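Issue 218. Parser rejects a valid record. Input:
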Amino acid sequence: MTSHTAASPSGACDTLIRNALVIDGSGAEPRAADVAVQAGRIVAIADAGALAHWQAASVVDATGRVLSPGFIDVHTHDDTNVIRTPEMFPKLSQGVTTVVVGNCGISAAPVSLKGDPPDPMNLLGKAGDFHYPSFASYVAAVDAAQPAINVAALVGHTALRNNHMDRLDRAATDAEIAGMRSQLREALEHGALGLSTGLAYGNAINAPTEEVLALAEPLAEFGGLYATHLRSEFADILDAMDEAFRIGKHARVPVVISHLKCAGVENWGRSAEVLQALELAGRHQHVGCDCYPYTASSSTLDLKQVTADYDIQLTWSEPHPEQGGKMLKQIAAEWGVDLHAAAARLMPAGAVYHCMSDDDVNRILSHPASVVGSDGLPNDPLPHPRLWGAFPRVLGYYSREQKLFSLATAVHKMTGLSAQRFGLHERGLVREGYHADLVLFDAQTVRDAASFTDPMQPAHGIESVWVNGQLAYRGEDKKATGARAGRFLARTVQKTSA
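Output the parser choked on:
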C-alpha cells in the first residue's frame, strides 16, 4: 500500500472513506487509513485523519470497520446471468465486485446450439439464453447490459465441442480441433482469459488428453491460462492432476485446478498427498487451485456420483419438479426403488452432494496456492448456499471462528492473489491508481446467512460495496443502490509471439 503521513488540505474527490482499518489484499497486516476515490480510481491513501481536510461529495466514517478490495469470484457460472439479471444481487450483497465466468468447460460464448444445450451447459440457462456465436458478441452484450459487477471470461472446451461436433461421446477429429482452435483464438483476441475444461462430464470425458493438448496450444501466444475441472476428483485424482499439469506444460501456460477437493468417502483424508502433488508440480510450472468453503458440491444429477455413502439433495428435476429440496434416499424410499433407479427417473436434474470432509476442506482452503471461488449455480431454483454466502463464510466462519487463517490472509485469497493469478490488471488491491472496487465490512459480525434449506439470503456484516468507484450496495438495508458500474475485463497480459 502506498503510504502517506500527510496530504494536501486542498484535495478533492468523489468519495472519502475515513478512519478505516485497511486490509489491502496483498496479505499485509491491517492499517488505519483514509482512502480517497475519484473518477473510479483510488487517488490517495493516507494515515487515518491525514485526509480530514479533503473535500468530497460523499464522506464515509469507517471507524471500527474493515475496508478491503472487492472480492473476486474466480469460479462462477454467471455467464448468461450477468446479462439477463445484471443487478447480480447474490454476488454484490456478499462483497463480490468481479466474477470469472466460463468455468468447467462450459461457457455462454462462443456457442451455436443445434437444440437444447448439452449437459452441463444447461446449468447456464435454456437454449434461448445462448445468443453469442462469437466471443466478441458476448463481450458486446455484457457491455450493453451494464452489470453491477465486473465480468472476465474463460472459453469452455465443451462449448467448443458443441459447436464443431455432431456428437460429444467421442474424440474430436483433427478438422474439428482446428475449428475449435480458430474459435478459441478469436476469443483470446477479444480478451478471453484462457481455456477451461470439464473432463469429468459425460460430454467431455471422451475427449482424450491429446485433444486438449492440441486445443491449448494457442494459449501461450496470448498470455492465457488453462483452468480445469479434473477428469476425476475421486480415486483417480492424482492421475487427473498429472494430466492437467501435462497440458499446462505442453501449452506453456499456468494451470488452475478448479474447486480442488477430495470427493467421496473413500477419498477422505487424501488432501495432504493431493496438495503435495500440487507443490511438486509448482517447482517446474505455474500451478494453483480454487476452492469453495463448504463440504458439499453441486451440479447436475450424475448417476456415476449416486451413492448411499453420503447425503444427496435434489435441487431440481425436469420430469419431477415437485421433488426439489428432498433427499434422494427419501425419494427412492417413497417410490420403492433403489437410489440409481430414482436418480434415473428424476433426470435431467440437479443435486447437492455432501461428499467432502471438513479436514480436507480446511487443508485445501488454507493452502497458500488456493484462492476462493463460489462455483454457485444462479439458475438453480434451490441453489447451494455458496451462491450467496461463500465469501462472508471465509471471513466469518473460517477466519474469525475457526481461526484457520488471519483476516489479512482471508482477504488476500479473495482479492490480490486472485487478481494476480487471473491477470486482472489494477484490481484486487487497495492501492493508489487502482480501480476502486472496494468492500466495507464489520469483521466482528460478517458471516454467511444462506443455508442448504434457505439458501437465498444476503450475508450479514457487509456494509458498503463500491464497483469502479460507485456505491453499488448498502448493507444497512441490504439493498442495491441501482448503480451498475461493472464492465467486461479483458485479459491484460500482452500478446506475445508464439
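Fixed in the parser; the record now loads. The mean pLDDT is 96.
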